[in-house]
Amino acid sequence: MATLLLVHHAPTPTVCTLADAVIAGARDPSIEGVDVVVRPALEASASDVLAADGYVLGTPANFGYMSGALKHFFDTIFLEAGGALTDDGSAGGATSDGPPRRTKPYGLWVHGRYDTTGAVRAVQSIVGALPWSQSAAVLDVMGDVGEREKGQAYELGATVAALLSA
Q1: How far apart are the first and last CA of the chain?
Q2: Cα–Cα distance, 62 to 49 (Å, whole number)
Q3: Is 156 exposed, middle or buried, given 0-12, 13-18 or 19+ CB atoms closer than 10 A?
Q4: What does the pLDDT look like over 73-88, one tens digit per residue?
Q5: Among the listed ranges 8-22, 73-87, 150-164, which one has the minimum average pLDDT value?
Q6: Strand partners, 107
Q7: What is the pLDDT of residues 58-72, one digit of tens each?
Q8: β-bridge mates for residue 109, sequence order
């Protein structure tokens, strides 16, 4: 059975609504053969990442960046999960002179009040140095979360889970 790891930081009711919709979509009853594991960003570990076949990440946009909790997650798991660094120590592309790296699908959702650009860019920069590949459009939600946004979040979770389905 494939494992989908959902790592999120959902500190407010609005962001929690998005997280719940993503989780519900990933657990859609029509998707078979996928074990959905949900971890708050401050509790997720490198062993969770290494055991997973795909990922969905979620964060609020805080001060033009991802949440500190999601950044802590990346800081904690990056090298052990196969992250690549450049000579200057920054996150590098997921390429090497060795054998090709297996890529695992991921999706991302970000919620902000004013701007999510910096948060999306920061997550994609880090993930670009991991052996993961973006498999769904980023769900970028501004302001209140209504039925439309909940439907999009459900679809994001279901899309990544379906990619792993047997």
Answers
A1: 7
A2: 24
A3: buried
A4: 999 998 777 765 555 5
A5: 73-87
A6: 56
A7: 999 999 899 999 999
A8: 58, 139
